[in-house]
Prior knowledge:
Layout (H helix, E strand, L loop, with lengths): L6 H10 L2 E5 L8 H11 L3 E5 L7 E2 L2 E2 L13 E4 L6 H11 L3 E4 L6 H9 L3 E4 L3 H8 L1
Parallel strand pairs: 1-2, 1-5, 5-6, 6-7
Antiparallel strand pairs: 3-4
Helix pairs in contact: 2-5
Amino acid sequence: MTIxxxxxxxxxxxxxxxxxxxxxxxPDPRQPSYFVSEVVKRYGFKIYLINPEHRGxxxxxxxxxxxxxxxxxxxxxxxxxxxxxxxAVLAEEARxxxxxxxxxxxxxxxxxxxxxxxxxxxLVVPGICIKTCCQLLL
Length: 138
């Protein structure tokens, strides 16, 4: 099964990954996408911040990109901060560019997409905070 919820599997994903594309970044430090990304970056991950509404701006010292297609490196983790109804389009874009793990933050889960990615044999982390995993498992 490729739906990942076991802590050892989560630790393995985090230890093997170096690049995280955060989709749905906000410039507001009070928003989860901001403070979660801040912690993930502190753990040494190369983060790419994605939000077409803030494309070209700088957040957390990184230039914001408009889409996953603009990421210049291989995306290992797609970290999702989008409403569940927006996740299907995002998953399609992620398939196009390639990725290792599709990580849905709490409240972003779209179970139709999760099941489809699972059936395709892709790694999916549904509804678990990557920040908490970094803090507990690394």
